[in-house]
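agent> step 3/5: call structure_predict on target 'Cupin domain-containing protein' (Bradyrhizobium cosmicum).
agent> reason: downstream docking stage needs a structural representation; sequence fetched in step 2, passing through unchanged.
tool.input:
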Amino acid sequence: MEHVEHVRFGDQLYAIIVRASFREPGIHFFSTPELSQQLAFMSHPQGKSIAPHRHNKVTREVHYTQEVLFIQKGKLQVDFYTVGEEYLESRLLGSGDVILLCSGAHGFRVIEPVEMLEIKQGPYSGENDKTRFEEAAASEIRIKGPGL
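tool.output (status=ok):
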């Protein structure tokens, strides 16, 4: 799909980007069952009924936090790194874009003032939840994909 990018380095899936331009009728799941976050796009016609339902208690084991960012406004640069803190490359996200960060490491640079929503497993355990490291120098940055 041209409006969906699976960001891979080697055989590892780092992220799934769904551009604001994605429009398909029905339900489209972008994430695979082994991911601890589910990402889907849903488009239904007026009058469609979704049966009332509740979600059952299901025990799940989560090893790493995965997060979804929805860019409401602005432009955000996502820098991808290996878990060994080596810079790989970057992508730009704009208004309406969504990214599911699945693995590896990442950093962000705000290119235009940004408003975004973050969805991830909780509760947040503060600094125990992440390891911070030095970002790549501006001269190393390689942006792949749409320049927005």
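agent> step 4/5: record observation. Residues 4-43+63-120 form a domain with the Jelly Rolls fold (CATH 2.60.120).
agent> proceeding.
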